[in-house]
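Our preliminary data section would be incomplete without showing what the modeling component actually yields. Below, a chain of 205 amino acids is followed by its predicted structure, encoded as tokens that our downstream tools consume directly.
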Amino acid sequence: MRLRFNKDAINNIINSEYNIDSFPFTLPKNSILEIGMGKGKMITDMAFSNPNNFYIGLEKYATVAEKAIKKANELKLNNFKMIIGDAKNLREYVNGKFDNIWITFSDPWPKKRHIKRRLLYRDFLNIYKDVLSPNGNIYFKSDNDGLYEFALEEIHELKLNIVHTCTDLHNCDYFKNNYLTEYEQKFKDLNKNINFIIFNYKKSN
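Predicted structure:
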């Protein structure tokens, strides 16, 4: 169910301790990014469980992102921040490199005329390369089978290195410490398969 627009959301975020509004933001060591963090369930759970890492959630929509403030406050996080913005501007947002990047349940933009808006389109993949550590990985999760196939095509086209891929993450032995987004929890309860890819920019053979 889509959240009702909250005109106060952006001001609430700006006035919170979790907002980043001065760019470029210098990344601390062990920084991890989630693109499209939504209400922030996954990234705040990760931050709570991994206090030695620093987590940044990127989200375009303030009404959704505002929900992460409550979660972060409840968990008393001091290793979490958020950016309200667009992934196409990532190079401008940060100074430094992320250890890992998560892309979770992004809009599949199914129509062909919107192909360049997909967060796994090659232009975005080239942006991520500039803000990811040479030894870092990108983790992609999606319930959309078409977007999963598209992501694989783009990754192969750019000759990137696939570390692991599967079409049923919740029954995959490879990845044990999986933190769920709110969407993902709903899909899991419905026994809907979740597609999963880990890849990086080390050229594949």
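The first strand starts at residue 25 and ends at 26. Helices lie at 9-14, 41-49, 62-65, 67-75, 90-93, 122-131, 145-157, 182-189. Preliminary results of this kind motivate Aim 1 of the renewal.
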